[in-house]
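Re: that chain you flagged

S.,

Sorry for the slow reply, it's been a week of failed gels. I finally had a moment to sit down with the sequence you sent. For the record, here it is as I used it:
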Amino acid sequence: MVQPGPDPDSYPPIDPREPVPDDPGELSPDTPETLPPPPVEPMPGPDDPDSVPAGPPGG
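Prediction finished late last night. Pasting the structure tokens below so you have them in one place:
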């Protein structure tokens, strides 16, 4: 089951005339500067029905 998100009425109003900071760290100071490495996804095996054949047999 999906939990409801935060109430949009509780957010502060957005002023379109306010300048956007060049450094995104000003908006979210608790986040790390660099992203962690992406997870390694397993490669499909030869018996996987969704795997793409490498080429014609006997190629």
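What I noticed first: The chain has a mean pLDDT of 74.

Talk soon,
D.
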